[in-house]
Design a protein that fits this description.
This protein has about 100 residues and is mainly alpha-helical. It contains 5 helices and 4 strands; from the N terminus they run ααββββααα.
Length: about 100
């Protein structure tokens, strides 16, 4: 990813979170962005696939997606997390979302 795009992503994240003024931990940030997992369930007999809630800030989700692609491609730590999750679940987007939480 080019340096200008990375700087742009940093600026968006910093601006949308108001300088992380109200964010106290990773779980709170994950929920604010809308990357927290929500289980689809109806009563006791119907269980659906889990998915992200998407109730958070969509601008932040978009700004964090591209850096996670770059991190998976070039950083060994993120690549190992991505490969582990994709090999376990078979869902590439699940691995990217997990990496974007860690970025």
């Amino acid at each position: 990813m080019s340096a200008t795009r990375l700087e742009q992503s940093k600026a968006i994240v910093f601006a949308e979170t108001n300088g992380f003024e109200l964010i106290r931990n990773n779980k709170q940030l994950t929920s604010y962005v809308g990357l927290d997992v929500r289980e689809k369930q109806s009563g006791t007999s119907v269980n659906g696939k889990s998915q992200i809630s998407k109730k958070g800030n969509s601008t932040l989700r978009k700004a964090m997606y591209l850096p996670s692609l770059s991190a998976v491609k070039w950083d060994d730590r993120f690549k190992s997390v991505y490969v582990r999750i994709v090999s376990k679940s078979g869902i590439k987007m699940k691995g990217l979302l997990r990496c974007s939480e860690k970025c």
